[in-house]
Design goal:
Length: 347
Amino acid sequence: MNTFKFLKGFILALAPLISLAQVNNTYTLQGKAGKPATVTLQYTQNGKTVQNKAEVQNGEIMLTGTIDTPLQASLLVTPSEKEAMATIVHLWLEPGQIKLNSLDSLQKGNGVFSGTPLNDESNALALEKDKVTGLSDQAHDEAVKAIVVKFIKAHPASLLSLTELNITLSRGIPDLAIVEPLFSGLSAGLKNSPLGVEYQKKLIRWRTVDVGAIAPNFTQPDQQGKLINLADYKGKYVLVDFWASWCHPCRDENPNLVKQYQLYKDKNFTILSISLDESKTAWLKAIKEDKLPWKQVSDLKKNNQARVKYGVQSIPDNFLISPEGEIIGKSLRGEDLNKKLMEVLGK
């Protein structure tokens, strides 16, 4: 048998399949545009930043490319007019034809991407979230979380479900009784995806700082550079508080922390604050401005080691620790913190 002819025939037979695979990984983004502009689609693929640029032509934009897997991307719209401001929005980039209602609508804040499963699901979920109005901040957050939980249960194979689980339901230190069953209910493909594997690592860290666990020890320098060890506080109730000078919600919460500290400091209670600042000057200035009388520590590193150990993703966040070193409360703010301290110390 002629080997060359066999290989040639084999390759020709594969050609349509290879072509089909490329087509199936191809995305097209189309939309109308009333004014001249440059659009830049940016995303990360295989660890590399990819940029796909195009100019508005004949009142339309069109961007085409290939991706290995659906992912989130940003679209930067830069108007040709010198005084006009650029606009950046986010979308799901996936194989298929993605439609933008109009480029001008993006600059007005009401642009919509549609035509592919993830973008359509995202639109539907956003509409449900927008229906939640007229509630306090806490009640609003709880109502939105309930909508997300319902969505995840109904869409176990959707990448949007894993993304919402990772972001909306996992700010700070999440309630493991909620997020673990939701993650377990996702499809095997999602759980074994890079994002799914990373989320599993977070779950392992969060279990070590869940209510009932022994608080992990850490050592951080105080304002004078003296090393402070959490273990030194054994025998006291300690509120381990994560904050930063640049965090407005943290600064808003500080007056309540000062009030609670004054109420219970003579009842075997103290606060140990860990700043995520990188600037010592800004850190010390905030301590002075907010008149924080308890011990303050920070390693002034971008990835503060105590934050990493406790799995803190957003601030303010905190952990209430018993004299025995057990975590008895977490992510307590405002009235929730006040009630917990009254329950434990107001006897």
